[in-house]
Write a structure and sequence with these properties.
Oligomer: single chain
Order of helices and strands: EEEHHEEHHE
Number of strands: 6
CATH superfamily of the largest domain: K homology (KH) domain
Radius of gyration: 17 Å
Number of helices: 4
Largest sheet: 3 strands, antiparallel
Strand order of the largest sheet: 1-2-3
Structural class: alpha+beta
Helix content: 25-40%
Strand content: 25-35%
CATH architecture of the largest domain: 2-Layer Sandwich
Number of domains: 2
Distance between the termini: 39 Å
Shape: elongated
CATH topology of the largest domain: GMP Synthetase, Chain A, domain 3
């Protein structure tokens, strides 16, 4: 079976509240030495990212690819897809409770109903959606521009 594998590396120093760390996107080298801390994760990010922001980026990217493929297979290549993802961390339970995708698409040749059907199909085949399903509520809001 063909697989794709990607790696990230993290170095963490100290406890949760006062500690901090850095991570590298080790497979690609696209991002190295990114700072992370619990304070910037849960308060003001001050230019730092967080696991939730990275999940949102991964989900939006993956969903865009899934939707582009579904539309293509239906004979309607999109001109543009814009996906805004919001990943919510419940501070009380330290649990990711929800992920909201706001999907906007410019797709010549289809109407809003056909776009909605493609959005629902993409929701079923998106690998990141499927990884999150069951552990977080997933909401997809779609608009054909």
């Amino acid at each position: 079976m063909a697989t794709a594998e990607r790696r990230a590396e993290v170095v963490w120093n100290g406890d949760l509240q006062s500690g901090s760390g850095t991570f590298d996107l080790a497979s690609s080298g696209a991002w190295t030495g990114a700072n992370v801390s619990f304070a910037t994760r849960t308060e003001n990010p001050n230019g730092n990212t967080s696991p939730e922001e990275l999940i949102a980026a991964a989900h939006a990217s993956c969903y865009a690819m899934a939707l582009a493929n579904v539309l293509h297979e239906g004979g309607n290549d999109p001109e543009e897809l814009r996906i805004n993802a919001t990943c919510v961390l419940d501070m009380g339970s330290l649990t990711i409770t929800s992920e909201v995708l706001d999907v906007h698409g410019r797709v010549p040749g289809i109407d809003a109903d056909a776009f909605q059907q493609a959005v629902e199909q993409a929701d079923q085949v998106c690998p990141v959606t499927n990884a999150l399903r069951g552990s977080a509520e997933i909401q997809v809001n779609a608009t054909l521009d």
